[in-house]
Amino acid sequence: MNLPIVSFEIAKDLKELGFDWKCTNIFITKQYGLYKKKDYYNKTFAESGALGVRFIFPDDSFIYEPEPTLIIKWFREVHNIDIFIRRCSVYYNGYVYELWKGNEFLDNNEFVENLTYENAELEGIKVAIKYLKNEAL
After folding, report:
1. Is 29 helix (H, G, I), strand (E, B) or coil?
2. Cα(101)–Cα(57) distance, rounded to whole angstroms?
3. C-alpha span between 67 and 57 (Å, rounded)
4. What residues contact residue 97 under an 8 Å CB cut-off, 6+ apart?
5. For residues 120 and 45, which has the higher predicted lDDT (pLDDT)?
């Protein structure tokens, strides 16, 4: 089963916001443009001091490509932003996201039709990124 992977734009935005959690997937961004290496360098290698991401590539030549679940956990633990995904069958058959920061409601996509669970996750991530960028201004 292939899990959804985020786009380069989302990964780049996350890096700008300080995302530095180790992932098994990375985008390599220097020399010949954008390249993708998957499932080759992982947290165990990087932390053990063996050949790993930080030992092969300088920090500015790669961007971590996390799975949506890890991004949602990062928003929750680092920025206190919760992204909830739930089924909504009142208006249509699909999934919606809700964004909360503590007890403060930030946003949802209540009236967007027919999103899959995975697409609702990605939409919630995009809105959380937008929120943090605006908060930084």
Report:
1. coil
2. 35
3. 21
4. 83, 84, 85, 108, 109, 120, 121, 123, 124, 127
5. 120
**Which residues does 29 contact at the CB level (< 8 Å), separation at least 6?**
35, 60, 61, 62, 63
Which amino acid appears at position 71 of this protein?
I
- The three-state secondary structure class of 132 is helix
- pLDDT tens for residues 59-101? 667 788 899 999 999 999 999 999 999 888 766 678 888 899 9
* pLDDT band, very low/low/confident/very high, at 107 (cuts 50, 70, 90): confident
pTM for the whole structure: 0.78
Structure tokens at 70: 């890890």
DSSP assignment string, 43-92: HHHHHHTSS-HHHHS-GGGEEE---HHHHHHHHHHHH-EEEEEEEE-SSS
- The answer to whether 115 and 123 are in contact (CB under 8 A) is yes
- The neighbour count for residue 90, using CB atoms within 10 Å, is 8
pLDDT, residue 56, reads 54
Q: Token digits for 64?
A: 């971590």
